[in-house]
Structure formats: C-alpha cells, structure tokens
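Let's see one such:

===
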Amino acid sequence: MADYRAPLSDIRFVINELAEFESVRAVSGNDDLGTELVDAILDEADRFASEVLAPLNAVGDRTGCVLENGVVRTPPGFREAYRQFVEGGWNGMQFAPEYGGQGLPHLVATAVGEMWTSANMAFGLCPMLTQAAAEALSSHGSEALKAKYLARLVSGEWAGTMNLTEPQAGSDLARVRTRAVPDDNGAYRITGQKIYITFGEHDLTENIIHLVLARLPDAPDGVRGLSLFLIPKFHVGADGALGARNDLRCVSLEHKLGINGSPTAVMSYGDNGGAIGYLVGEENRGLELMFTMMNTARLAVGLEGVGISERAYQDAKAYALERVQGRDLGSDDPAPVPIARHPDVQRMLMSMKSQTEAGRALAYAVAAHSDIAEHHPDPDIRRRRQQMVDLLTPVVKAWSTDVGIEVASTAIQVFGGMGYIEESGVPQHLRDARIATIYEGTNGIQASDLVGRKVARDGGAAAATLIAELRGIDGELAAAGAQVAPIRRWLGRGLDDLAAATAWLVETHAAQPRRAAAVAVHYLRLMGIVAGGGLMAKAALHAVRHLETGEGDPAFWRAKIVTARFFAEVYLTRSGALRLLVTEGWGALEDFDPYSDL
C-alpha cells in the first residue's frame, strides 16, 4: 500500500480556480486570509494526515475498539493522535473566534477534512460529529448552553455525538420512543435507548456531549413531537469543572464490516432515574433543529466518498506503475511492462481519477456556496447561494459515496489477486467506504429528498438555476478550441438530458409521487454526473488558458484536459440512458407485488 500524501496541487487548483476562493475571501471577515495562509494550512494538514493519521489507519482496522467495564478503548495511537489534533487547533477551523475558533471558511475546512478521511476515515468521524454538534449548538442553543459547552466542543477538548436511531426507528424517526420529563430545576430526565451512535463512548476526550432526540409527555405524535436535548456524559458545574457521571452508559459496541477504529455504540439513557439533559431550542422542533447537524454531517459524509476515492486511487496508481506483467500491446518488444501501460488498466485508473476529481470539485463548490450564503452582505445573493447548498447537499452525499464504493472496488481490481488479500491494504478502503452510502440517511433517502423537497417543491427553480450556470460553462467551451470540443459536445447533451428529466419529475411528482420516487436514484446520479462534469469542463477551460499563457506546470494542465475529456466521454455520455431511466424506469414497479414477485 502506498504512503498517503494529500493531492495538494489539485486541492489548491480547486480552491483557487473552481470554488471561487476570491469571492469567499472577500466576504469571510478574516482580514488575514490569503493564499499564502491557506497554502501553509494545507501543507501542515498534509503533514499531520500523512505522518500521524495515515499510519494508524491499518492499526485501527486490525485492532478495533474494545468495551471494558463501561469504557471504550480506542486503538493504539488514537488517543495520542487526537491530543495532537486538538493541540494543533484543527477542530475549530471554521468556527467563530468568540468561541475559540479560527474563523476560517468552510471551503478551507472542507479541503482539510478530505485529508483526514483519506488518511484515516475511522479517526475522522470523531471530529466530524463534534463539529456538527458544535454547529447545531451554535445555531440553536441558548446563551447559557453555549457559554458552558460550545468552546470545548469547538476546541475538540470535548467530543459530540448525534443520537437519532432506535431499535424500532431507523430512518423513520416518527417512531422514536425516548422520553424526556421536565425536572424541577428546569432540566429534563431522559430515558430510552439509541443505537448506531458513532463515538458514543470512547477514551479520546474527558467528556462527551450527546445531542438526543426525545419526546416530552404531551408532545404530538410523529416527527412533530420530537425535541432536541443536550446530555453530557459528565455533569458540568457553573465553573466549568466536571462533576459526577450522568445516568447514561454504553451497553455494547457493534461488530462491523469496516471503520473498525470508530466505536459504534448502543447507548442507554436513564437506567437509574433518568439522564439529566437540557432543551436545545424550542419544544417539538427537535428534528428541524437537528437538521443543522445532519446537513453538516451529510456534506462531510459526501467528502468521505471523495477521501476514500483519493486514497484508493493513490494505492492503485502506485501498484500499477510498479507491477510488471505482460508485454506492451502493439510493441515488438517482448519484455514485460508495468501494468499501467495496458489499456484496460489505464481505463480503470482514469475512471478512478476523473470521478475523484469531479467529486472533489463538487464538494468544494458547495462549501464555497455555504460560505457566501452565510456571509455575503446582499440577502438575495445569500438566498440564491443557500438554494444551491440545499439542492446539492443530497447530491454530494449520495453521488460521492456511491463513487467512493466504485473507486475502492476498482482499486481491488487493479491489484488483481493481491487486491483480495487484506495485507495489500485496499480491501479496507472498500469496507470503510461501504457505510458512507448508508448513514446520515441512506442514498435512497437522499434521492427522495432531492426529488421531493429540492426539485418538485419549488417547481424545479433551483435545478433550473444550476442548469443555467452550467450552460454558461458550455458557452465558454465554444470559444476554447478543438482541445475541449469533445467535452462541450457531451456536456451540452448532459444538460439537455438533466433539463428534460427535471421537467418530467416536476410534472409527475404532484400526480404520481410513487412514480417519481421509483426513479429518484437515477435522477440524483444524473445530476451528480452533469454537475460534476460541468466543473470538470470548467477545469479544462482553466487548463487551456494556463497553457496559452505559459503559467504553471504544463504537465498538470494537460492532465486536467485529458481527465475532463475522459469524464465527458465515459460518464457524461451516460446522461441519455439516465434520462430514460428517469422517464421510463418506473413501469414494472407499478405492477410489482412484493408478496408474490419476490
């Protein structure tokens, strides 16, 4: 397995030229923010990821976590690495300075987050959830709660979790049974059990802050009766000192396919009278408030797809360049050559590289939209940027994680027989990647959210805005010459197919919602490929201009054009089939009987 190094050249290119860094910098409010500072942050993040986290990746996979007398022990080296992580200030990059954060853009934090995932996905889940909890508390917590808990979440001194799922209530949160009863001192006593709680118990931090969905006694049925509560593992005094342990415990750890270095806990609240918790926001608005945390996590999970793709690609590329096998096709020389010379291996490597770069561009672009939506002085611009964040969040989460599985699987194929052997390291990537399509809402749920809430609800307005922006790139390609003509050909067709599929869904959803739901996954994949392809086309445009001016590394720019063309010819060409799947792929399901046809 190759040593991981962050793809800094591509990361910097995407930040500066595809994800509008100058626009983000202009509204960031951080007067010191510039490319030199960002470059220094990326260099140091690369060092920490490659030298500290990456060597622990296989250790965590082999060793896993252990529950001993109610305490979860993380794999060897994780505690020391986490201490360095907190000391380095990595957890608080994007948070406000008033709570100890650095006030950096989400765009920069996204690039750094990709490195954590590539280096050690299991480790990266702890700060990812802590940051999501801090976002939710920052947005919805009372001043008293923020004063007591937020700074230590921002720093990473304390960890955070998200508690939604229960044994009888997976994604159907209307069935949540955990109860919250008001206490005399203004707090609440919570009783119930939660499952699949990532880092629900561990030894990395001295306190863990759980955000928990529960029902008050007089709450209405369904999701409208859920409230959000903050429950600390240890009580916190007025002076910030830790007190007695709260009435909560880890009952067991799940035995999983992957991410073994990350403990997935079954949590029990209130076995001895009730865990003391504190209401976050208003009563019966818990799910609405939790969506702040969930959406942050969904973008981070999509980034996990990118990160695993990058790590798998690096391993496969290194192996293909060193593994000598077979003669060069079309050559008279009988000597064996590295398998990277063989067309089918080249196809696999380019499929990995192009999809990884497209996913990275899309994730970073959404992060930039988020920064501008949060900070721009013009409310209309903020609204339009938030519209893009809302539209593309399920696409980043689902499309990028589907790609992560595909790329990790392809890495095994490049390795051949060695790829099926655990010692090669690449099976871990596939096992780790598999969870990302499931948690924070399965990819089918993401597709239903995209079709029902993000496209049909506004009559396709947000999708039309996205298509119009991408048509602007298509127009620029026309003036860029023959190098990008194939890219323009297939991007144009892809945009036409996405527009037609969108129109069909908007018309169909109102009268035939089951029909629209049956093809939602196909529509999300179509939007991911076309949006990703548009950004790859934009990358090719920038590469052509740099080659014309003689700026930068010409090999890097030529590779950008080749990779964008490959994506267009191999993936954008699929838009017509995906359009047909959207408009025609529902038929048999309408006649399907699950009781007799299975």
User: Anything to note?
Assistant: The radius of gyration is 24 Å.
